[in-house]
Amino acid sequence: MESGRLQNEPTSVVCRRLATESRTGCLHLLPDEASGEHEVRIWFRDGRIHTAVAQEGRRRLGEILVADSGLPQGSLDRALDQQRREPGGVRIGDVLVAMGLVDRETLRDAVREQILETLALAVGRRHGAWRFVPDAAVKWDVPLGSGMQDALMEASRRLDAPEVIAWRLGGMDAVVDFGSDDADVRLSLRAREWAMLTHIDGRNSIAEIARRAGEDPVTTARVVHGLHAAGVVHVLRPPAPTFDDLRADLVGVSDRPAPAVRPAEPSPGLVVVPVPPPPPIPPPPRPPPTAEPTSEPAVTSSAALFADLADDPAD
Q1: DSSP code, position 9
Q2: Rounded to 5, what percent of the chain is helix, strand, coil?
Q3: From its phi and psi, is residue 313 left (phi > 0), alpha (psi between -120 and 50) or beta?
Q4: Cβ–Cβ under 8 Å, residues 2 and 132
Q5: Contact at 8 Å (CB) between 148 and 49?
Q6: d(Cα 26, Cα 42) in Å, to the nearest integer?
Q7: What is the CATH architecture assignment of 160-236?
Q8: In the chain, where the domains are located
Q9: 6 near 129, Cβ under 8 Å?
Q10: What is the value of pTM for the model shown?
Q11: What residues form DSSP beta bridges with 5?
Q12: pLDDT < 70 regions, the chain
């Protein structure tokens, strides 16, 4: 059995790892006692999600069928009465199919939506613990029918808590860039999401991506969160500088207006001030030319020298 804390290893990271390792078992997400949340269980078979169960925070299957599939409320009430009369705890979906009120395909779509809503609860967990029990039997054999990255992206589309998204990404000023450890990324995106994707370049913040794509900031953050949960993008802190930023820092030249500098927190940018070259060193002065003698110097003969010494009165 494996376990850990969600603060250190979020649900999306744990789910991606279990999918990569093709694990079979049940992932238990255990809330902290003071949070008031309930346990969420996600069953895996060979690395794929088969079902997910939460006591609260998601719609019941009948509610989904009424809201999304057009099942009349009266028909659901009749099916619930029939379920209560059936022995052995028959599931409401089987009762609805047996009564001819929904078909198997409609039921499968509703179950898939319920699993994704439960997975959204799991992805949105910020605190608590997780525990994986290997080889635990799958409660119901209703596979989700999509890869892990697609499932995490779909679950993130259902997140209704902006504070969860902001906490996971670091706020609307966070900058994201592409980066995945998985070489085989399979992700189904909508046309509007593809438009947002084109503005992810390692420089634009989430707020800037929303502005450029003409989308609501909360919707953009939800999409970016899904890409982050799927491992397609990663958060950059601080924003990556552009080439123009680096050039401006190095040579002190920029076409952009100079940023305002607060006296209490001066900008630490490096500016290189050009220094004029030193004046050239003059060559050393040349010595004046020596005058050549016009005649040979006189040479005193040895006889005259001795004559002078002989006449010296000191002798």
Answers
A1: S
A2: 40, 15, 50
A3: alpha
A4: yes
A5: yes
A6: 6
A7: Orthogonal Bundle (1.10)
A8: 2-73+105-148, 160-236
A9: yes
A10: 0.63
A11: 129
A12: 138-143, 145, 161, 163-164, 180-186, 237-315
